[in-house]
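#lab-general

N.A. 3:47 PM
ok so I finally got the sequence cleaned up, no stray characters, all 377 residues accounted for. can someone with queue access submit it? mine expired

B.Y. 3:52 PM
send it over

N.A. 3:53 PM
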Amino acid sequence: MAGPRPQLGAWQDPSAAPLVEIRNVTKTFGEHYAVDDVSLAIYPGEFFSLLGASGCGKTTLLRMLAGFEKPDKGSVLIGGEDVTAVPPYSRPVNMMFQSYALFPHLSVADNIAFGLRQDRVPRAEVNERVAEMLRLVRLDGYARRKPDQLSGGQRQRVALARALVKQPKLLLLDEPLGALDRKLREHTQFELVNLQERLGITFVMVTHDQEEAMTMSTRMAVMNEGRIRQIGTPAEIYEYPSNRFVAGFIGAVNQFEGRVTEQLDEGLTVHCESAGTDLRVHAQHEVAPGTPVAVVVRPEKVRIFAEQPPPCDNGLSGKVEEIAYLGDVSIYHVRVAGGVLIEAQLTNRARRAAAPLTWGDQAWVCWNADDAVALLE
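B.Y. 4:20 PM
back already:
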């Protein structure tokens, strides 16, 4: 019996209307292009991340969504309405800042209620909505405390409650977990995702943390030098990067430059001098012989052996130069005949004190053609 069909994302439904549309937006500061002709559609209920290194334009794009910056060209639409010239306080948007920006002299409850009181919401409704938010972020017993009496994680939840209490259509998060330690950050990632799913509010998050974006996002946009280099689900971007930049930016990758020598039904043959051999690779599109491409494969797709394994699509031999033991995995760097250093990741399934390979050992690495991709850009 066939199982349930996977649910399509709103971005895959031709009839779905986006909540946010950014149309050919450009923003310059002097001669520097912070955002360069960016177009983007974000759908209701998404947890969408803008990911990139410092200075890539992601925060400027977020600030234009919030209304704190006005684009030089292009337009911003929310719910089908052009809000390009609409001030921040008139947009159906709220923003949670990296610093949290809590008022130190106000209690937790008063911090959460601040925006509602500014909007002159009746007192009874304010009290009801604040109490609901405190329950939602699990701070019921902290209403009377001041921010300096809270931990970093608790202050983060107060800032989140204050942003959500006004029931915005769109919540913008600027590096929301940057001030938390690693363990608390990992725990809070799942809390945020679960909260967003319960409320159904669209979240747009800016982050430079790849793991954070991969963990939390329904979709993400990878940015570089003011432009979007790829948009997709975390799995699409990790497994099928569309260009060299994205392949190198998201996670670790082995990359071999070469030229296509043969196009076959089952894929490409690429001659790579740095690997010292021809490599076989899956191809999504036809690529003419002679075309320069980069063959990329993730370290966890590369298998490593102490003895010569059975024939595989791509097999090379070399010497182990570096080993890193990380507990759950071990990372090996193997220098092959062509001179390139190949990284292989071995899962430590069996409990053992000694590694199967050590520095200077001969080793064989191999991977399947379907585990690699050929990139033109």
